Amino acid sequence: MPAAAPVKLGFLLWPQTDDWASLRDAAVRAEGAGAASLWTWDHLNSIVGPWEGPILEGWSILAGWSQVTERVTLGLMVGANTFRNPGLTAKLATTLDHLSGGRAILGIGGAWFEREHEAFGIDFGSGFGQRLDRLDESVMLLRRLLDGERIAEHAGAAYTMKDALVEPRPVQRRLPIMIGGSGPKKTLRTLARYGDMWNTSGTLDELRAKDAILRERCEEIGRDPATIERTVTIDLVIRDSRAAALDAYKAILAGAGAEFDESLAGPIGTPDEVADAVRPMTELGFRHILIDTPAPYDPETIDRIGEVIERLNA
């Protein structure tokens, strides 16, 4: 039986800020501390707190990070399929792959925040089901374009292409596509068909149930579910005591305009306590942990993440 993949931790740095320098510096700090990946949102309005709050654009952030980091992978958590034609998305991901020397991940999902679509006149579709159908068609086209296919003719329900080609090719032989979401009837089928990575969230029991459905979707098409990298997004705060971590966590949420709910709190406490809380997720197969991180990007948790990584991979 092959050995389990090493546990990786990454940071999802919220773009709800007007301060590029702090977002840039947090990315550099995270890479230096041992993070494996960096992520940011793809939203046009703030989604936590007042919608009028400042927020920077996701693909531009990734491009900026590509020039100040050397090792971490870079992706949106996750891109809104509604915002862009899949041809444009394929070109954006390919260009990021070149800017970063082969570190791009194409994160994508069906989109959910109606307010930003209304604000900027972007078609939100007739409902969630239609958006997920569009996502499935889009990801199919993305996979083909990123793999070098010239699409001579495509006339689908949502998209048309004629002699479409992405050139130059990505630096990576197979630029990974991450699907965000857990819808059992559509999203996980799209993931099983085309995805390389999956992002979700929830309690351990919820993760176990979602993973079981993904395995069913893979079995339906004869795919080995182990070929899909599982990631989970959590809140995480490190301090020398749980009490100090809890105080810090409350302050972080308040600063971001979010309410504290201890029942929803993620791993919080000392490096040992955090590692013990994360370990059951990794044993379930979610071996890439993404840490939800609002501005001002909690420097102590970033600096000490290596202590948790060391314990999880001991």
Descriptors:
single chain, 314 residues, alpha/beta, TIM Barrel, 11 helices, 18% strand, globular
What's the short story on this structure?
This protein has 314 residues and is α/β, with parallel strands linked by helices.
Structure in words:
Strand 9 (197-200), helix 7 and strand 10 form a beta-alpha-beta unit. This protein is α/β, with parallel strands linked by helices. The two termini are 19 Å apart. An 8-stranded parallel beta barrel has the order 1-2-3-5-8-9-10-13, surrounded by 6 helices. A two-stranded antiparallel ribbon has the order 6-7. The radius of gyration is 19 Å and the shape is globular. It has helices at residues 20-33, 58-66, 86-100, 114-120, 128-146, 187-194, 204-221, 242-256, 271-284, 299-303, 305-312; strands spanning 8-13, 37-40, 73-76, 79-80, 104-109, 151-155, 160-164, 177-180, 197-200, 229-234, 237-238, 268-269, 288-293. Helix 2 runs parallel beside helix 3, helix 3 (86-100) packs across helix 5 and helix 9 (271-284) packs across helix 11 (305-312). The chain has a single domain (8-312), classed as Luciferase-like domain (TIM Barrel, Alpha-Beta Barrel), CATH 3.20.20.
